[in-house]
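Hypothesis: this fold can be encoded by more than one sequence.
Test: take the structure tokens below, design a sequence, compare later.
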């Protein structure tokens, strides 16, 4: 069972970002809810040039290390299920260089969730051994990279 989230944290903009604008408060599958909440933000970011999208994605990762670490510390729990900014960043990574379409969003979403849930090596090692904001973020960053690579292969095989 995860620790309850004090209401005062939700009034703090940084914590609110960590909780994915509240999507991480879902009682069921908060990581999936967070990834779903990331889709509209991805669609907005996808309107940018590829370079600016890449820079925004990198910023979301760097900012996420700080935000997720801060929220984990405030909760006294490493990688609380409600912290889903890492899912936002992981999904943004998944969708790097992908054409915007309903199909790519669905495939990218599914791939990212599979890698995030199954945590193949080295994701599982990082998830269990690395703590703080970097630990919260890095497993989802790698899951996003894996999902991006598979999505790019999929797009080459099934154009």
């Amino acid at each position: 069972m995860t620790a309850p989230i004090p209401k005062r944290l939700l009034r703090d903009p940084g914590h609110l970002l960590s909780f994915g604008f509240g999507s991480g408060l879902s009682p069921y599958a908060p990581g999936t809810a967070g990834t779903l909440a990331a889709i509209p933000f991805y669609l907005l970011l996808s309107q940018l040039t590829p370079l600016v999208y890449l820079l925004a994605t990198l910023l979301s990762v760097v900012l996420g290390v700080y935000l997720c670490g801060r929220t984990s510390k405030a909760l006294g729990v490493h990688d609380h299920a409600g912290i889903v900014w890492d899912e936002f960043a992981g999904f943004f990574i998944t969708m790097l260089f992908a054409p915007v379409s309903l199909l790519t969003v669905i495939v990218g979403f599914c791939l990212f969730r599979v890698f995030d849930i199954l945590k193949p090596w080295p994701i599982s090692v990082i998830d269990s051994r690395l703590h703080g904001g970097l630990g919260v973020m890095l497993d989802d960053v790698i899951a996003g990279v894996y999902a991006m690579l598979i999505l790019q292969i999929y797009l080459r095989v099934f154009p």
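Residues 50-75 form the longest helix (26 residues). The mean pLDDT is 94.
Hypothesis status: open.
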